[in-house]
Design brief:
The structure is a single chain. By secondary structure, the chain is mostly helical. It contains 3 helices and no strands. The protein has helices at 3-33, 38-61, 65-86. It is elongated and about 65 Å long.
Length: 104
């Protein structure tokens, strides 16, 4: 296979890995914030997302630094896309966090 299609495929794989990683992060924050056990959500999700991403980078690179760089570029570009898609709309303001009560 020539170099250009291989790099394009690595870039697409990086984009898919980034979409799964950052989309999963967004989903975890939404679910974990209202969960009775948020630490379990955040730890489990972080471990799963990191493992999937590292294995994906390993296989996408195929031992070539050029493919690894293309995969990383796709990953970072997916982060930008996910940030734009999950941004709250301009008319909606986020709810302020409730103040934690302290023991008297």
């Amino acid at each position: 296979m020539s170099e250009a299609p291989t790099l394009l495929l690595a870039w697409l794989e990086g984009g898919l890995l980034g979409a799964v990683f950052f989309g999963g992060l967004w989903w975890t924050v939404r679910k974990g914030a209202s969960s009775p056990r948020p630490a379990l959500w955040f730890f489990g999700s972080g471990l799963a997302r990191m493992s999937l991403t590292l294995v994906g980078f390993y296989f996408a690179s195929g031992g070539h630094w050029q493919r690894l760089l293309a995969c990383l570029l796709g990953f970072v570009m997916a982060r930008i896309v996910v940030l734009r898609l999950t941004r709250p709309s301009a008319g909606t303001s986020p709810r302020p966090a409730s103040e934690a009560s302290h023991a008297p």
